[in-house]
Design goal:
Its cofactor is FAD. Keywords: FAD, Flavoprotein, Oxidoreductase. GO terms for molecular function: FAD binding; oxidoreductase activity. By secondary structure, the chain is of the alpha+beta class. The protein has four domains: about 90 residues, Uridine Diphospho-n-acetylenolpyruvylglucosamine Reductase, domain 2; about 120 residues, Uridine Diphospho-n-acetylenolpyruvylglucosamine Reductase, domain 3, CATH 3.30.465; about 110 residues, 2-Layer Sandwich (Alpha-Beta Plaits), CATH 3.30.70.3450; about 80 residues, Alpha-Beta Plaits, CATH 3.30.70.2740. About 35% of the residues lie in helices and about 20% in strands. Strands 15-12-14-13-18-20-16 form a seven-stranded antiparallel β-sheet, with helices on both faces. β8 and β9 form a beta hairpin. α8 crosses α10 and α9 crosses α11. The two termini are about 45 Å apart.
Amino acid sequence: MRMPTPDASVLARRAEIVNALRAIVPGEGVIAERDEMRVYETDALTAYRQLPMVVVLPNTTEQVSQVLKYCNEVGIKVVPRGAGTSLSGGALPLADGIILGLGKFNKIVDIDYANRTVTAQPGVTNLGITNAVAHEGFYYAPDPSSQIACTIGGNIAENSGGVHCLKYGLTTNNVLGIEMVLMNGDIIRLGGKHLDSDGYDLLGVMTGSEGLLGVVTEVTVRILRKPETLRALLIGFPSSESGGDCVAAIIAAGIIPGGMEMMDKPAIHAAEEFVHAGYPMDVEALLIVELDGPEAEVHHLIGEVEKIALTCGAVSIRISESEDERMVFWAGRKAAFPAVGRISPDYLCMDGTIPRKQLPLVLTRMAEMSVKHGLRVANVFHAGDGNLHPLILYDANKPGELQAAEDFGADILKLCVEVGGVLTGEHGVGVEKRDLMNHQFTEVDLNQQQRVKCAFDPEALLNPGKVFPQLHRCAELGRMHIHRGQLPFPDLPRF
């Protein structure tokens, strides 16, 4: 895995840089000791590690602005970091760059029930927003499995999804506004409590930008009323293919569940042994379908989903009879990732999205790939929107297994694109999928995306080495370079 070559001239000035940063963020705001920086050497894609040159932990927007302005002036790379739960290496440090940690930005700024919004600093956890408004019957819809730890700022960077995003949308559909700092230190606001903004959709550009365009320092999100009734169905199938057929049939019938998740047999067994949720152990695939809304509507839809499931060959159906039972159904799914860690020393959590109708084909092809690469795979995914999360099981202590796991993962992602899908649904590109981008995009496509990067970060100092297989200099993309306020050839007449 290639990363940008460290700049020796920057490393030679490390002591000077550390002192300058300590002047901006005094006290314990700068971490420069090697052992103390270990905690920042990786994110949740733990196969890759790299110590940063220095870690900076600001606690005000003004400090973030000053840090970025200084780094921009002296040419230092910056990697923004939230809770470090990224599964694509998005927060992987650079040897000649700083980690800009936003963990101290952990306060909720405003709760506005009349406008149904919460404004929070980026270090507030996803679940923290829901907990802050739950007593009034509200919640924040996007709910990644890591919601107890992942931060709202990181959710914006990766456009995170979750169980309930099928019906209520991803992060991009629930963020109304942000405050952000550009690489030159400028502080700007995009959007707000209003539902729509005029002009270019820069808020949409920032959501999912993976720390390449700016640093988010405040977020305004929409909150929703908790539905009157929520019921969940556990539906067991004799094969993953029949479960996939049921997913497509439910959506085709015009039913949009609050959430619709699927697990295959290895994931079912791992989750059940970890959580004891009462999952059926004799099925090959398990579908969790949650229906929400008025009681009469939910009661009707339960009957419709049961009919569809039986038509698709379901061998077991269990319906939650209480809120506690519904939560137990979801507890196993939410704990599936850590549960799989109990049956394998290591695993890669992949993330690709496909058209729903291709689910049976893709599951069959993945089983064939498992044999080809000699590695097991457990499948946990957001079935309703086609967002797959295959967990490739391997042992890093066995020579060649990490490479085999990476090759297996690359084959899965290429398959997603082949059947009309995309490389990532919510985990981002980072370094994990960076070198696969040309399988989905042409060179013209990638160059156009990089022009957006140039508009925000002309010197490519924000999170370099991520997303783009080869990051071109802005001048190479036809952008006119202005140095110290002077255009090239200032003596020539301009029209």
